[in-house]
Structure formats: C-alpha cells, structure tokens
Design brief:
alpha+beta, Ribosomal Protein L22, Chain A, three-stranded antiparallel sheet, 3 helices, 3 strands, RNA-binding, ribonucleoprotein
Length: 127
Amino acid sequence: MGKPKAERRLADNEARAVARMVRVSPQKLNLVAQMIRGKKVDAALADLEFSRKRIAGTVRKTLESAIANAENNHDLDVDALVVSEAYVGKSIVMKRFHARGRGRASRIMKPFSHLTIVVREVQEEVA
C-alpha cells in the first residue's frame, strides 16, 4: 500500500541542496548567488570564502551540502561538478514597527529568502 515513490525531478548527473528561511532579502542573496552560477565548485567555494558579503557563509554551507549530496547520494565525481543553477525565492516578510516622533510609527520589513543550488557533473572534453 502507500503511494509510489516520486519521480526524480533532476537529471541523473545532478544534485541539489535547498536552504530555506534564510534571514536576508532576496535581492541581496541573489547578488551572491550570481557570483557562483556556472563556475566549477572549487572556484565557487573559493569565491565565497573570500567574499565580503555577510550571507556568503550560508551560501557556502548550502553549496557544500549540494556537493555532499552529489557525492554520497548520487555517486557523482566531485572534481567534475559545476554549479548549474543557483536561484533565490521569496519567503515570508516579518513586519515590525519603529517608533517615531509625535506618536507616529514607521514600518520595518524583515524579509526571508529561499536558496536552491543545483550542481551538475560535466564530462571533460579531450581536445
């Protein structure tokens, strides 16, 4: 009984990792995700290591998780991995207020984001 196992959405040479509810705006997170798109994973890890953005550490952990998923769950070669996709989605926005003069208030938005990183194993072409 029970329902059948869901079909795999990714190709056989791909693995992914998702970081949900990351406390940063999607616009800022997308700047860091844009840095690593299309790069080999070792170059992407080096870029994130020396990035001055606060959120680069979280993106690095997510990329390392995607690499570990590729190696352990899908038996892919770590040296041949490339970041094929890195995209950001909007999540909730916490609304807070900041007391202002004359009894007024102004709104403070505290956005959250979702980050998805997909790594793909590419075959080296022999020239």
